[in-house]
From TrEMBL:
<protein>
    <submittedName>
        <fullName>RPP40 protein</fullName>
    </submittedName>
</protein>
<dbReference type="InterPro" id="IPR013893">
    <property type="entry name" value="RNase_P_Rpp40"/>
</dbReference>
<dbReference type="GO" id="GO:0030681">
    <property type="term" value="C:multimeric ribonuclease P complex"/>
</dbReference>
<dbReference type="GO" id="GO:0000171">
    <property type="term" value="F:ribonuclease MRP activity"/>
</dbReference>
<dbReference type="GO" id="GO:0004526">
    <property type="term" value="F:ribonuclease P activity"/>
</dbReference>
<dbReference type="GO" id="GO:0000447">
    <property type="term" value="P:endonucleolytic cleavage in ITS1 to separate SSU-rRNA from 5.8S rRNA and LSU-rRNA from tricistronic rRNA transcript (SSU-rRNA, 5.8S rRNA, LSU-rRNA)"/>
</dbReference>
<dbReference type="Pfam" id="PF08584">
    <property type="entry name" value="Ribonuc_P_40"/>
</dbReference>
<dbReference type="GO" id="GO:0000172">
    <property type="term" value="C:ribonuclease MRP complex"/>
</dbReference>
<dbReference type="GO" id="GO:0001682">
    <property type="term" value="P:tRNA 5'-leader removal"/>
</dbReference>
């Protein structure tokens, strides 16, 4: 009755807007990027970087931390792992909101189009963060917030369509299957 329509009107005005994903784009110029080889997860001195080094680098890029290791910096003396290359232009797109798995698959497929002509990208990444205070994580376990609430996975896709899948969960969470 009237109560139901009042509720619907409340949700349509307030909740639907909140669920609409927010998209932000930024262009990073002259970005130092680690050199990666799809078949070399551990990395090799002077040839390629490891998966752990890439993951750490991604954290710095997401948080807009300077990569040039200046001693005067109070925030970070982090530097890009070796070997690295300078990329003239890199695109960073962030989508914030509730995103269903089908949309993530769609995003992955669209990202792979970057490997078409002209073949400029050697690799690209797609990272999916769960909310730090999400009640659930992988499998059937509750998500343990404790300190950081880590709850994410990252695809690294290469031009030959090989890929790496990196996952991070808190110490008290079940690991994914």
């Amino acid at each position: 009755g009237a109560e139901g329509s009042t509720l619907m009107s409340y949700f349509s005005k307030n909740q639907i807007q909140a669920l609409k994903p927010k998209i932000t784009f930024s262009t990073l110029r002259d970005l130092q990027c680690p050199v990666l080889q799809s078949n070399d997860l551990q990395g090799k001195p002077e040839e390629s970087c490891s998966t752990e080094e890439l993951f750490e680098w991604l954290g710095a890029v997401w948080n807009q931390v300077s990569l040039d290791n200046k001693s005067s910096s109070f925030l970070s003396t982090y530097s890009c792992p070796e070997p690295n290359t300078v990329v003239e232009k890199a695109f960073l797109c962030t989508i914030t909101g509730f995103i269903i798995p089908e949309k993530i698959i769609q995003l992955l497929e669209q990202l792979c189009c970057y490997f078409g002509e002209p073949k400029l990208a050697h690799w690209l990444t797609l990272t999916v963060h769960g909310f730090a205070d999400s009640p659930v994580s992988w499998r059937e376990s509750e998500h343990g917030f404790h300190k950081g609430g880590e709850n994410l996975y990252n695809f690294v896709i290469f031009r030959n369509l090989d890929y790496w899948l990196q996952m991070a969960v808190g110490a008290h969470d079940d690991c994914p299957p």
